[in-house]
Amino acid sequence: MPKSALAFDLLAADGHARAGLIHTPHGQIPTPVFMPVGTQATVKAMSPRDLRDVGATIILGNTYHLYLRPGDERIARLGGLHAFMGWDGPILTDSGGYQVFSLAQRRKIDADGVTFRSHIDGSEHRFTPEKVVAIQENLGADLIVCLDECAPANDYDYNVQALARTHAWAQRCKAAKTRTDQALFGVVQGGVFPDLREQSARFLTDMGFDGYAIGGLSVGETKEQMHASLEVVTPILPADQPRYLMGVGTPGDLIECVARGVDMFDCVLPTRTARNGSALTRTGRINLRNARFADDADPIEPGCTCYACTHFSRAYVRHLTKANEILGHHLLTVHNLHLLLTIAREMREAVLEGHFQAYREAFWQTCGQPAVNLA
Amino acid sequence: MPKSALAFDLLAADGHARAGLIHTPHGQIPTPVFMPVGTQATVKAMSPRDLRDVGATIILGNTYHLYLRPGDERIARLGGLHAFMGWDGPILTDSGGYQVFSLAQRRKIDADGVTFRSHIDGSEHRFTPEKVVAIQENLGADLIVCLDECAPANDYDYNVQALARTHAWAQRCKAAKTRTDQALFGVVQGGVFPDLREQSARFLTDMGFDGYAIGGLSVGETKEQMHASLEVVTPILPADQPRYLMGVGTPGDLIECVARGVDMFDCVLPTRTARNGSALTRTGRINLRNARFADDADPIEPGCTCYACTHFSRAYVRHLTKANEILGHHLLTVHNLHLLLTIAREMREAVLEGHFQAYREAFWQTCGQPAVNLA
After folding, report:
1. To the nearest whole angstrom, how far is the Cα of A45 from the nearest Cα of chain B?
2. Which end of chain B has the least Cβ crowding within 10 Å, N or C?
3. How far is the C-alpha of B334 from the C-alpha of B341, rounded, in Å?
4. Of A72, A94, A142, A253, which residue is the catalytic one?
5. Per-residue DSSP letter, B149
6. CA distance B302 to chain A (A)
7. What is the per-residue pLDDT for A103?
């Protein structure tokens, strides 16, 4: 694999929690970081300037979706994903594996790759490790991810087979990579099984990647199982490279997983719940469609400094969601992303200042819920 | 009627075209002006800061919609429409009459008012002139409008009856008004019939209002009929008060109606066409869903300075519209509103500098279409 453009400075650690700085061709990413999900070359209901305004430093694009529509070759012709979507900051593209296994139809997996039908028009397509790298090289993200298989978390025998494929595919992805300005992440799998997780972390670390994603979690297992997996995996991963937990999560998840050594997160939760009329807050989720907000002059979350909370009332946001107005989706998305991005920044400051544990305890006290495995 | 808060400075005229400045409690409105339509207390797909960014100086709210949801009394409790929707600039609310006659169900009109059923839940409601003024006083817009009846434009006998009601209701609205910080507009009706239009303009002018709306046009009549109506009406209206043509329109409509003495416009065209994937341009409308834009790296309208045109390609906007992404609606709305607001500003400058006719001719030359009744 050619030398990568990615560099990672580990600036401080506090327990297992870390504060760092990822350098990419499109700018720096302070970690811990939450990456808003831009599935179809747009973070839903947000413009690039809105994303800057809420504090986003990197966004995620979905390889599966962009390959199908508008097509990675078209995006390459139009100057790559950054130019296409007007976002000049860092971008990570996933491998498409998760969507193939969760969204595509009639998928058929073999040792060489996976054949599937588009969820849009039923057309047949095939992803191999080499194809997925080629697509991501066309898209041109700063951080790209190896094709992996996200297996059902509790099926041991299936996970053994899937892990063998994931590891073989990781080797092929690494061999297929040609661009020197993209950093490649391997994906640790292994379901809820500590022995498989350990095996995967060691195998990929021995191969050597620019960073390590942790997949197959937050897919239905318990919080305890998720935390136990992280506690096995992160001590094995190289300290001087970033760790990315895929598909997580809630404010509390971010804190508990940073406490277990994770640096990067993505999740559709803040954008998807926004479009369902719900706000994430430090004290839990609230649904603005609820009639109790009809005359509520308070902001979505009192004390929040986002555009939505500093300009509009719950009563107004409730009205917008009831009337199905786009601005309602937008304002709730602004708030939800702002909250997760703010919590990530706060955790970073806490680690840098050496009081992450106090921050973590204060969060759960505000939240009013017991932390899971806080010790 | 108490003395109104509205003052209008007629700064210049060039032919029948005028440049002016309306003073309201929430700021000044340079005219000619296009008012983006904020039906349900939001201009669809736009935040207040987006509206400022495209150059909006006043927006419109729909009394019918706001009365039904979230309710004018609720809005009053929450500080009025400006505070509720976070827009601190001038607002005009219409009378609700047009929506009752176009949107509500099972409407029954009588001399005293109109009974109708909500298009949302079928519940029964009644609008009288007094009720409509009370609703608009609850909403608290800077400019409010008398209840009128928008009759089928080509039915003479019906227009005679409707005009009698509209005039009687105008008198009752004027008498019912209690707030001194709101300006009241009468509505000239009369369909496509010059004698009725003249009668209406004289009747309302004799009564005396803060400004004059012209209703019942752009509802299916020909451009020639619309222009002929304006040519009858505007010379009768007081020169030192603003004239507002309701429900118009396209870039060309704005220019031709300013040429006939109109100062203010509103229309759902720029926002509605945006959500259908279409852009208004100086050379006509284009539908971004068209396959010919799939690889088009040009902006929506080359030369346009709006956020959408300075940051994104037609190919990207086409992708967003095909993928039904909210950002597509937003970017097209930004462009369409920016275009109409820019044309209104350009007309104002042309009038102030005394070359409106040259501006008008240049517009139609760029457009590539013959102007209607340009002389």
Report:
1. 5
2. C
3. 10
4. A94
5. -
6. 17
7. 84
What does the DSSP 8-state code read for residue B374? -
Decide: helix, strand or coil at residue B328.
Answer: helix
- In this structure, the number of other CB atoms found within 10 A of the CB of residue B103 comes to 15
Cα–Cα distance between B254 and B231 in angstroms, integer? Answer: 15
Question: Which residue from A44, A313, A320 is facing B326, i.e. has the nearest CB?
Answer: A44
> Which one, of A374, A92, A140, A127, lies nearest residue A257 by Cα?
A374
Compare CB distances from B77 to A49, A295, A318 and report the shortest one's residue.
A295
Phi, psi of B47 (to 5 degrees): -90, 165
The interface pTM score, or ipTM, of the predicted complex is 0.96
> Which residues on neighbouring strands pair with residue A186, listed in sequence order?
A212
* Residue segments in chain B with a per-residue pLDDT below the cut of 50: 1-2, 373-375
The contacts of residue B95 (CB under 8 Å, 6+ apart) are B63, B132, B136, B144, B145, B146, B147, B148, B173, B187
| Model confidence pLDDT, tens digit, residues A259-312 | 999 999 999 999 999 999 999 999 999 999 999 999 999 999 999 999 999 999
CB contact under 8 A, A320 and B70: no
> What local confidence, expressed as pLDDT, does residue A159 receive?
96
Calpha distance B284→B327 (Å, rounded): 22
Question: Is B206 assigned a catalytic role?
Answer: no
Check if the beta carbon of residue A106 is closer than 8 Å to that of residue B347: no
pLDDT tens digits for B232-291? Answer: 999 999 999 999 999 999 999 999 999 999 999 999 999 999 999 999 999 999 999 999
CB contact under 8 A, A323 and B74: no
Note whether B238 and B261 are within 8 A (CB).
no
**B266 is annotated as an active-site residue:** yes
